[in-house]
C-alpha cells in the first residue's frame, strides 16, 4: 500500500527549529498526517516523513510564467460565454469582457483566466471554431506587457493555439490535458506552463453519481499519474500546476474532504490551485441560492485554502478576495507594512 503524508500547516513568525517550510513559502509544519488506504490516519513528526516526501513538500516552487509562487496569487475568472453558471453571460460580449478584465487588473489580479466554453454541470461541448472566436479578440486586447498574465481555460489544442497567438501565456485545462491528444505536445513545444485539473467524467455527466474509494487519495493518485505522463511528453514538473477540481464530479462531502486535506497535494512538488468560487456547495452551506451572492462563503474558502499553502486562488470577486487576504496575512504575521 502507498503511504501519503499531509502536512499539518502552521503559520506565524515563531516557529520551532524542527519546522519544515511548506513549498518555500511563509507557512511551515512540524507534523504530518500519515495516510494509507488500509490503516487509520496517524500523526507523526516531520522528521519521520521519508526524505523524498520532505523534499517535495518543502522545496520552493518555480515561478509560473514569471509569477513567484511564495505567496497566494489571484486568478480572476473571465467567462466569455453566454451560459456561465456564475454570471449568466454578463461578460459574453468583447466590450464587457475587456472592461471586466480592466476592473480585475485594477483590483490586483495576477492572472486573468479567459474561458469560451462553459464547463458548468450539464454543459455541452461547443465547436473549437466558436470557442476560439469568443476568446481570441478579448485576449488580444488584454494581454500586454506589464499587465496581468492571461491564461486560456480550454481543453482543445486549436483554441489554445489561437489564444497563445493572441497573447495568452498559460493553459488551464479542466480535463488535465486528456481531452485533446494534441494539447500536451503543443504546450511542450511552446514551453507553456499548464494547470491540470481532476474531473470525474465530463461536464455533461460529471455530477450524475460521482463515487470514490477515498476521494483525497484517489484525486492525488490521478494527478500524480498525469504529472508523470506530462513529464514523459516534455512538460517538466516545474511548469505544471495541479488542481483537485472542486465541484467537478464531486459531491458536497467530496468537496469538503478535498478542501480539508488540500495540503496533501503539495506532495506532488507543484503549485496548487483551488477554484471553488461561488460553487453550489457554498450555496448549500450558506443557504444562498444565487451564485453572485455567495461572496462571503467564497472568501471563507479562499482563506481556508491560503491557510493550507495553496498558491493560486481561482476566483470571481477579486477586490474582495485581495482585501481579505491582506487582512488575513497581517493578522497571521502580527504586522502590516513593517509595523
TrEMBL record:
Pathway: Cofactor biosynthesis; tetrahydrofolate biosynthesis; 7,8-dihydrofolate from 2-amino-4-hydroxy-6-hydroxymethyl-7,8-dihydropteridine diphosphate and 4-aminobenzoate: step 1/2
CC annotations in GO: cytosol
Cofactor names: Mg(2+)
Location of the Pterin-binding domain: 72-326
Any GO BP annotation: tetrahydrofolate biosynthetic process
SUPFAM superfamilies recorded: Dihydropteroate synthetase-like
CDD domains for this protein: DHPS (cd00739)
GO molecular function, one term: dihydropteroate synthase activity
Enzyme class, first EC level, given as a word: transferase
NCBIfam families: DHPS
The name this protein goes by in its record: Dihydropteroate synthase
Amino acid at each position: 500500500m502507498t503511504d501519503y503524508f499531509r502536512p499539518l500547516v502552521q503559520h506565524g513568525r515563531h516557529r520551532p527549529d524542527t519546522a519544515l517550510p511548506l513549498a518555500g513559502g511563509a507557512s511551515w509544519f512540524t507534523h504530518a498526517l500519515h495516510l494509507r488506504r488500509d490503516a487509520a490516519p496517524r500523526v507523526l513528526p516531520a522528521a519521520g516523513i521519508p526524505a523524498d516526501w520532505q523534499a517535495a513538500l518543502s522545496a520552493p516552487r518555480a515561478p509560473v510564467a514569471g509569477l513567484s509562487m511564495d505567496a497566494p496569487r489571484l486568478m480572476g475568472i473571465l467567462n466569455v460565454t453566454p451560459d456561465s453558471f456564475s454570471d449568466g453571460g454578463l461578460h459574453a460580449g468583447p466590450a464587457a469582457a475587456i472592461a471586466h478584465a480592466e476592473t480585475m487588473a485594477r483590483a490586483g489580479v495576477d492572472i486573468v483566466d479567459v474561458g469560451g466554453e462553459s464547463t458548468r454541470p450539464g454543459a455541452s461541448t461547443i465547436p473549437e471554431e466558436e470557442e476560439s472566436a469568443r476568446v481570441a479578440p478579448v485576449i488580444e486586447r488584454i494581454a500586454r506587457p506589464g499587465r496581468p498574465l492571461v491564461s486560456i481555460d480550454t481543453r482543445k489544442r486549436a483554441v489554445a493555439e489561437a489564444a497563445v497567438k493572441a497573447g495568452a501565456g498559460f493553459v488551464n485545462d479542466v480535463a488535465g490535458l486528456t481531452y485533446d491528444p494534441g494539447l500536451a505536445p503543443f504546450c511542450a513545444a511552446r514551453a507553456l506552463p499548464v494547470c491540470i485539473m481532476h474531473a470525474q467524467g465530463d461536464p455533461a455527466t460529471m455530477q450524475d453519481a460521482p463515487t470514490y474509494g477515498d476521494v483525497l487519495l484517489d484525486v492525488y493518485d490521478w494527478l500524480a499519474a498525469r504529472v508523470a505522463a506530462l513529464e514523459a511528453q516534455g512538460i517538466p514538473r516545474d511548469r505544471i500546476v495541479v488542481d483537485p477540481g472542486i465541484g467537478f464530479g464531486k459531491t458536497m462531502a467530496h468537496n469538503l474532504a478535498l478542501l480539508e486535506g488540500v495540503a496533501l497535494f503539495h506532495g506532488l512538488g507543484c503549485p496548487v490551485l483551488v477554484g471553488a468560487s461561488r460553487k453550489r456547495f457554498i450555496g448549500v452551506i450558506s443557504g444562498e441560492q444565487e451564485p453572485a451572492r455567495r461572496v462571503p462563503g467564497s472568501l471563507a474558502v479562499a482563506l481556508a485554502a491560503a491557510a493550507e499553502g495553496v498558491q493560486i486562488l481561482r476566483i470571481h470577486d477579486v477586490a474582495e478576495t485581495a482585501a481579505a487576504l491582506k487582512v488575513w496575512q497581517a493578522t497571521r504575521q502580527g504586522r502590516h507594512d513593517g509595523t
